[in-house]
Structure formats: C-alpha cells, structure tokens
C-alpha cells in the first residue's frame, strides 16, 4: 500500500533501483536509460519512474538531500515495496588529490558525523559499508571503461553542507577518503537494517582542495553517464 511519502501501488516499483538525490536528475536518467518508462509516484515533487533496462524491470527515484530524507525513502522502498537493491547515483566533492572533477567514485564505505551511527546500538559507533555483491558488480563494470577516471574507496557523509573545518578534511584524506556527500551512510544503514543491498556511485562535481572549477548546476544534473552505466550493470550483476 502507498506510504505517506510514496504513492505507488504494490508491484509498480521494481526490485532494482537507481537513486540520485536530485528529482530532475532522476527524471533525466529514467527518460534516457529506461524503456517503456512510467511515472508511478510523485509525492512532494519526488518522482519515481519504472521501466526496463536491457529487458529487466528497473526503477529510478530521487532521495532528496541529506541523511533524514534518504533514510525515509530507502527504508520505505526496502520495507514496503520489496526493493532489493538500491544504488545511489549522485555527486560528491572531491577530497583526495588523486580524484579530479569529472571522475567517478565507487563508495566502498561511508564515514559520517550523522547521529545514525550511534542511535541504533547504544554505546557503539557503527560502520556503514556498501554491499559486496553490488560492489563487485560495479568494479567489474568499471574495468571495462578504460576512458574514464574511476576510483574506489570510502566517502564521507556529512550532516552539514556548510562546515568550514579544514582539519576534518585533512584527517579524512590521510585515511584515504575520496570525497564528501550527504546521503550514502543513510542508504547503507537502511539496507543493513532491512536485509537489502546498497551501493553508491558518484560523479565528482567539485573539489575541496585542488582549486578545480566546479561543475555548473546544469552539469551536475546531466553529466552522469559513467556513474549510471556502472550502477545499471551492478544492479543486473
């Protein structure tokens, strides 16, 4: 049955899903990559489209921005709609020197300052990791894309967008963190809670330390081809 945040009927959302944060990016991905696509939910401007990809049912739905929004949608999709695999296809700010604007980051894990890491088990700071079957599928897909800059490693899910703390960046970079975003820890946590699978594949839209020119808002919305190719292949793997 529909939830307060998703109006689709049972069976209208596929078990496999790509999930960008931006509703406009979700619409573009659905229209450009899915066949026989249909809008099945549009509550609060967060659209969900279902179609097929290479003959397999697949959905695309936006998560909105931040841990709370992502937690709501991912939990409801896993728990009430039978979604089995969600891959976030979004953007991140590059942190590590080897990562450049326009590159793609496959997130193996998500560090976070969000309280989600301490709320679920008292006294424990939980770690959030991607699902290995999806990660392996993504790495296999990435191996065939020799013309793209692709990196695999941890990212940082921040609960604050405007947080001027250079020591946090330098400390995370020293530990191999590739980029910063705001949703992956929530998605990974929901998947672990619900016995499902999740992964994040990100396009680097700006860089925190190397002085690169940031992508424009339009570029952030449209330059995602490598991430989507990797994500779709991983979902099918």
Report a brief summary of the structure.
The chain is of the alpha/beta class and 237 residues long.
Spatially, the strands of the biggest sheet line up as: 5-9-8-6-10
Q: Which CATH architecture?
A: 3-Layer(aba) Sandwich
Number of strands: 10
Shape: globular
Q: Could you give me the name of the CATH homologous superfamily?
A: Nucleoside phosphorylase domain
Per DSSP, the total helix count is 8
CATH top-level class = Alpha Beta
Query: CATH fold name, please?
Result: Rossmann fold
- Rg from alpha-carbon coordinates: 17 Å
Specify the helix fraction band: 25-40%
Distance separating the two termini: 29 Å
Sequence-ordered SSE layout with sheet pairings:
Layout: E1 16-19, H1 23-33, E2 35-43, E3 46-53, E4 56-61, H2 67-80, E5 85-94, E6 104-112, H3 116-119, E7 128-129, H4 132-143, E8 150-157, H5 166-174, E9 179-181, H6 184-194, E10 197-207, H7 217-222, H8 225-236
Parallel strand pairs: 1-4, 1-5, 5-10, 6-8, 8-9
Antiparallel strand pairs: 2-3, 3-4, 5-9, 6-7, 6-10
Describe the structure.
It holds the Pfam family PNP_UDP_1. GO terms for molecular function: purine-nucleoside phosphorylase activity; uridine phosphorylase activity. With 237 residues, this protein is α/β, with parallel strands linked by helices. It has one domain (16-236): 3-Layer(aba) Sandwich (Rossmann fold), CATH 3.40.50. Helix content is 33%, strand content 30%. It has helices at 23-33, 67-80, 116-119, 132-143, 166-174, 184-194, 217-222, 225-236, and strands at residues 16-19, 35-43, 46-53, 56-61, 85-94, 104-112, 128-129, 150-157, 179-181, 197-207. The chain has a five-stranded mixed β-barrel, surrounded by four helices. A hairpin with a 2-residue loop joins strand 3 (46-53) and strand 4. Helix 2 packs parallel to helix 6 and helix 4 packs across helix 8. The relative contact order is 0.21.
